[in-house]
Fold:
Amino acid sequence: MEDLKVFIEYQTRRTSSGRIIEGVIHLKISNLISKEEQQLHIEKLKKKLVQKIKWAKQYYQFHEDKGIVYGDQELRRLANTINAAYYNLPLEDIAFHKQESTWGTCSTKTRRIYISSRLIGAPMDLLWYVVSHELCHLAVAAHDEKFWSLVAKACPTFKECRKKLKAYGYQ
Structure:
């Protein structure tokens, strides 16, 4: 983990936090605390996030053999295939969109789905899960039992896919 990149931003805030974005540790450190406390926050957050990255690499190793979906046209084809086979829900459009905190979003009003551009070229099982998940939100808004039973129709391994997706995000 020596080659791990860490980006530190000092902000006027009471707390410090950290995230992993595309394999880079991003820390937001309070500048309202002493230099010694800042260093403790940095070390504690780095340790915690490095553990998450190690878990992700140990849990599932993603290889160079990427998926086949690299653009909106392939994404539409995938969504239409899943929708026709399992749901037959009215879908206006689906497209890749820059999203850093979510894998996908869905608007029941416009019937549009946006998939994070971080999933361009992702393994097919992960993309299949995220597209199925968002399609199901066209029918059920909440993450309740009915929603998950709908997801399971197209993606019976959705629980494993969720773990893989988490690992993919950390890597």
In short: Strands lie at 6-11, 17-21, 24-30, 93-97, 104-107, 112-116. The mean pLDDT is 89. Residues 6-59 form one domain.
